[in-house]
Design goal:
heterodimer, A: 313 residues, mainly alpha, globular, B: alpha+beta, nine-stranded mixed sheet, four-stranded antiparallel sheet, 15 helices, 19 strands, disordered N terminus
Chain lengths: 313, 516
C-alpha cells in the first residue's frame, strides 16, 4: 500500500509541473495588460512602462518562465502583481472559506444523496423513485447561480432567515455559520443530485446480483440485505463520483461565491483573471491542481478501504 | 478543533441569530459597489469608478468642486483658503488653511505635503494623471502655509487640475513615505473619512474623521462592500443590508428601484460620452465620404431610446455636455440613411462594405454597438464585431488593432482635456506620448494648443468651438450617446446637498451627510 501511495505521489510531481508550464504560458498569451489595468486608461506610456518594468513584464518570456519556475520550486508562489502581497498569504486568507463550503456541500450531498439513491433503487419505478429522479434532474439542470438566486429570494428576502451577503463578522463564529448555510445548501443540492443518481443505478445493479437473491431467499431482512450486503459492493462507483465531483464542486463554488458574495478561491480567481494578475492566477492554478491531484489520490486510497480486492492488488 | 467546536456551537443558534441581530448603535452607512475588490486607494494611481467613489470621501484638494456640482467656473476653496495670481497668470500662490490634520495620526498638513503631493501627481513614473500637469514648471513651499506653483504655459484650467479630483487630491507625505506599497490599501488624506480596515475581496471600512476641518461627520462609519453580482447587490439592498447602491445604468433598473419603498434613485452627471472613433488612416475609413456615410447612418435618438431616456441623453458634440468649452451647437451629422447610401455609392461602395471592430463584452457597451451594427446594416455597411473581454479590448485598441473604437469616458470637465486626450496628435495610440487618440486625427491641433496658451476666456472658448467643429466635420468620431450615473439610496440617507453631478461618479458623503 505504501509503495502504491509513493508511486501516486511521484506521478503527481510531473503533473503539477506540466500544469505550471501550461498555466504560465496561457495567462501570458491571453491579451490584456496588467499595467494598464493597474494605472487606468489615462496613464502615460512612461508610467505604463515603469509599472511593466517593476513587475518584470518587460523581460523576455523564457526569462520570466525560468524566474517563475525557480520561485515556485522553492515553495514560493510569488507576489501578487496587483496587491504586492504574497500569493500564499492571499490564498491563506480565503482558502478556509472555500474548504468549509465544499466540505459542507459534500456532507450534504452524501448525507442526502446516498439514502435517496438507495430508497429510489429499492422502490424502482414507484412514486418515490420518480420523485427522486425528478429532483435529481432538477438539481443537475439548474445552474448554480440560478438556484443561488432562488434560495436568496426565498430565505433571505421572503423569510429573512439568512443574510444576502454571506460575509462573516470577525470573531463571530455564529455569523460564520449563518453565512455558510445557504451557499452550502446551494452547492450541496448539486452534489445530492449526482450522488443520488449514481447510488441508485449502482444499487440497482447490485440488487440484481445472485448473492442478493440468495440472501433474500434465505430470509435475511431487507434492511440487512441493503445496508450490509448490497451497499458495500455499490460503494465503489459512488466513491468515484464523490471524488470526481469534488473537483466539480470546487468549480461550481466560483459561481456560488460570487452570487452569495462570499470570500473564497473562486472569487479570487475571477478577480485575478479580470485584473490580469498573472502571479496570482498561476498560484491559484497550482493550488487547484494540487487539490485535484490530492482528491484523486484520496479517492484511490478509499477504494482500498471499501474493496479489499484493491488492497490485495 | 477549536474551530470545529465554534462552528458546531454556532450552528445551533445560527438561524435565530441571523434574524435577530441587534441594530448597530452607531450610524453606519453600508454601500454596495459593483466590483470584486479594491484596485487602489492611491488617488494618483487609480482611475476606476469603484475606487474613485471612495477616494472622494477620503481626500481634499487645494480647491474643490462644490459638492453635487461639476462646474469649473464655480470652484471653491478647500485646503487652500485663498489664492493670488501673477498678472501673466503663470504663477499661482495658494494660502493654506491652518490646523488641517492628516488622518490616522500623521500630523498637521503643511505646504511640504502639498508640494510633495502635486509633484507626485506630476511624476509620470508614479501618477496616472501626469499629463494634466505637463505645463507645471515648479512647485515650491514659500512658507509652511503657502504654496507657489509656476507654469511654463498656462493650463486651460489651473484650478481644475488642483481640485479634489484625480491628481489634485492631496496626499500626506509622511504617510506615503512610511507606508510604501501599503499606501494602496491604507491611503491617508485629510478628508471627512479615514481608512479603518480593508478586507480583501470583501469590504473597506472608513471611520469618521472627528477632527475634520469642516466639522465632524454625522455618519460614524462607512462600510464599502464589494458585490460584483448585480443580482446579489440588488437583493442585498432589498433586504436592507445596504443603504446606498451603485446602480445599473439602464432604464429598467431605474424604474424598478423607483418602485422600491423609501428609496431615492439618483441619476446625475457627468454624462460619460460614448464616441465611435474612426481611424482615418485605415481603409476604407481614410475616405471622408465613408466616414460621413457612417455619421449619417447613426440614429442617436434611437440609441437613447434603446438605452432609456431616464439614464441616457443625446450628445451635443464630441465633447460631453456641460464641460467648460463644450460647443452646445456642434454641427453633428443628422440621421439621413439616404444621404449615407449616396455617399457610399460615391465612394465606390454602392454594393455595401464590410468593416470590423474589436468590441468589449461589457454588456452596456456591447449592446450599444449592436444597435449601431443594425443601423449601419440598413445603409449597407456590415460591421463585424470581434467581441473580447474588457482587459483584452483595452490592450488591443491601444495597439491600434481596431479601425473603429467605441469608447466611453468622463474627464475633468474642461473641453481641453477631452480634446487633447482623444483628438490631439500627441495622444495618438502607438506613439510614445499616446493617450486615447484612436482616430489619428490632428486637424484641430492648432486650435487646441491655441486655447491652452490664451488667457482670454472668450477667445479660449472660441478656439475650442472651432476645434470641435473641425473634428465633427472631419468625422474623427461619431458621438453616440451620453450615459448618466445611476445610484440609489434609502431615504434615511441625506447627502446634505443637491446632487446634480459628481466627478467621482458617486455621491459625495461628507460632514453634511446624515443617516437617520
Amino acid at each position: 500500500m505504501l509503495t502504491y501511495v509513493v508511486k501516486r505521489l511521484l506521478v503527481a510531481v510531473p503533473t503539477l509541473l506540466a500544469v505550471l508550464t501550461v498555466v504560465f504560458f496561457f495567462v501570458r498569451i491571453a491579451p490584456g495588460d496588467p499595467a494598464l489595468i493597474i494605472l487606468g486608461d489615462q496613464a502615460s506610456q512612461q508610467a505604463l512602462a515603469a509599472v511593466r518594468h517593476d513587475l518584470g513584464l518587460d523581460q523576455p518570456l523564457p526569462i520570466q518562465y525560468v524566474d517563475f519556475m525557480s520561485t515556485v520550486l522553492k515553495g514560493d508562489l510569488g507576489t501578487s502583481l496587483v496587491t504586492h502581497r504574497p500569493v500564499w498569504g492571499e490564498v491563506a486568507n480565503v482558502l478556509p472559506y472555500t474548504i468549509e463550503l465544499t466540505l459542507s456541500a459534500l456532507v450534504i450531498g452524501v448525507a442526502l444523496g446516498l439514502p435517496l439513491g438507495i430508497a429510489a433503487a429499492r422502490h424502482r419505478n414507484r412514486p418515490l423513485d420518480y420523485a427522486a429522479r425528478i429532483f435529481s434532474l432538477l438539481g443537475l439542470s439548474f445552474p448554480a447561480f440560478v438556484s443561488a438566486i432562488m434560495l436568496l429570494l426565498a430565505f433571505a428576502i421572503e423569510l429573512r432567515w439568512f443574510p444576502v451577503i454571506s460575509e462573516a463578522r470577525t470573531g463571530d463564529p455564529l455569523s460564520r455559520v449563518s453565512a455558510l448555510i445557504l451557499p452550502a445548501v446551494n452547492l450541496g443540492l448539486i452534489m445530492v443530485a449526482y450522488v443520488m443518481r449514481v447510488a441508485r443505478s449502482s444499487m440497482l445493479g447490485v440488487l440484481g446480483e445472485d448473492y442478493i437473491r440468495t440472501a433474500r431467499s434465505k430470509g435475511v431482512p431487507a434492511r440487512v440485505v441493503i445496508w450490509r450486503h448490497a451497499l458495500g459492493n455499490a460503494l465503489i462507483p459512488i466513491v468515484t463520483v464523490v471524488g470526481l465531483y469534488l473537483g466539480v464542486l470546487i468549480g461550481n463554488s466560483v459561481l456560488t461565491e460570487i452570487v452569495f458574495n462570499r470570500p473564497g478561491l473562486g472569487k479570487l480567481i475571477v478577480n485575478s483573471l479580470n485584473q490580469r494578475d498573472y502571479t496570482m492566477l498561476e498560484g491559484l492554478m497550482v493550488i487547484y491542481a494540487f487539490i485535484i491531484v490530492t482528491v484523486n489520490l484520496l479517492t484511490d486510497l478509499t477504494y482500498g478501504l471499501v474493496d479489499p480486492r484493491v488492497r490485495q492488488r | 478543533m477549536r474551530y470545529l467546536a465554534s462552528m458546531a456551537a454556532g450552528l445551533a443558534g445560527a438561524v435565530l441569530l441571523a434574524a435577530t441581530l441587534p441594530a448597530d448603535a452607531q450610524k453606519v452607512l453600508n454601500v454596495g459597489m459593483a466590483a470584486a475588490d479594491l484596485g487602489s486607494l492611491d488617488p494618483h494611481r487609480t482611475a476606476t469608478t469603484p475606487d474613485k467613489a471612495i477616494i472622494g470621501w477620503m481626500f481634499n484638494g487645494l480647491v474643490r468642486f462644490k459638492p453635487g456640482t461639476m462646474n469649473p467656473e464655480a470652484i471653491e476653496p478647500d485646503l487652500a483658503q485663498s489664492w493670488d495670481t501673477s498678472p501673466d497668470q503663470l504663477t499661482w500662490t495658494f494660502h493654506l488653511r491652518k490646523g488641517v490634520q492628516c488622518n490616522n495620526g500623521y500630523g498637521e498638513l503643511n505646504a511640504d505635503d502639498v508640494v510633495f503631493s502635486l509633484k507626485r501627481a506630476s511624476d509620470p513614473k508614479i501618477s496616472s494623471f501626469s499629463s494634466d500637469y505637463a505645463d507645471v514648471a515648479s512647485i515650491e513651499a514659500a512658507d509652511p502655509s503657502t504654496v507657489r506653483i509656476t507654469f511654463k504655459r498656462r493650463p486651460p484650467s489651473v484650478l481644475g487640475i488642483l481640485t479634489n479630483y484625480q491628481g489634485g487630491n492631496i496626499v500626506c507625505k509622511k504617510a506615503v513615505e512610511k507606508l510604501g506599497d501599503d499606501y494602496r490599501t491604507k491611503a491617508v488624506g485629510t478628508g471627512p473619512f479615514a481608512i479603518e480596515e480593508y478586507t480583501p475581496n470583501q469590504s473597506i471600512t472608513l471611520v469618521a474623521n472627528k477632527s475634520y476641518f469642516r466639522g465632524a461627520p454625522k455618519i460614524d462609519r462607512i462600510v464599502y462592500r464589494y458585490i460584483p453580482s448585480d443580482a446579489t447587490r440588488d437583493l442585498a439592498y432589498t433586504s436592507g443590508e445596504i443603504d446606498l447602491i451603485y446602480g445599473r445604468q439602464d432604464q429598467v433598473w431605474v424604474e424598478r428601484m423607483k418602485s422600491v419603498p423609501r428609496t431615492v434613485v439618483d441619476v446625475f452627471g457627468p454624462g460619460e460620452l460614448s464616441d465611435m472613433n474612426l481611424n482615418i488612416t485605415k481603409k476604407p475609413l481614410d475616405d471622408l465620404r465613408v466616414r460621413q456615410a457612417i455619421a449619417y447612418a447613426i440614429n442617436r435618438a434611437e440609441i437613447v431610446k434603446f438605452k432609456g431616456a431616464l439614464t441616457a441623453r443625446e450628445p451635443v458634440s464630441i465633447v460631453p455636455h456641460d464641460y467648460l468649452g463644450t460647443d452646445e451647437n456642434a454641427p453633428l451629422y443628422p440621421y439621413d440613411p439616404t444621404k449615407a447610401k449616396q455617399l457610399l455609392a460615391e465612394a465606390g461602395y454602392a454594393n455595401g462594405l464590410k468593416i470590423s471592430a474589436i468590441q468589449t463584452q461589457l454588456p452596456s457597451m456591447l449592446n450599444t454597438m449592436q444597435v449601431v451594427q443594425a443601423q449601419l446594416k440598413k445603409v449597407g455597411i456590415d460591421l463585424q464585431l470581434d467581441v473580447v473581454d474588457h482587459p483584452t479590448f483595452h490592450a488591443q485598441i491601444r495597439k491600434d488593432l481596431s479601425p473603429i473604437v467605441m469608447y466611453a469616458a468622463a474627464r475633468l470637465p474642461v473641453a481641453d482635456v477631452y480634446l487633447t486626450q482623444f483628438y490631439h496628435s500627441r495622444s495618438i495610440v502607438g506613439t510614445p506620448t499616446a493617450v486615447t487618440n484612436f482616430s489619428h486625427c490632428s486637424v484641430a491641433d492648432q486650435d487646441i494648443d491655441g486655447a491652452r496658451q490664451t488667457t482670454d476666456s472668450a477667445k479660449q472658448k472660441a478656439l475650442w468651438k472651432e476645434a470641435q467643429d473641425k473634428l465633427v466635420k472631419e468625422v474623427c468620431a461619431v458621438p453616440l450617446y451620453e450615459q448618466l450615473q445611476v445610484w440609489a439610496h434609502r431615504d434615511k440617507l441625506n447627502y446634505g446637498y443637491k446632487l446634480d453631478a459628481s466627478l467621482t461618479l458617486g455621491p459625495i458623503i461628507n460632514e453634511q451627510s446624515t443617516l437617520q
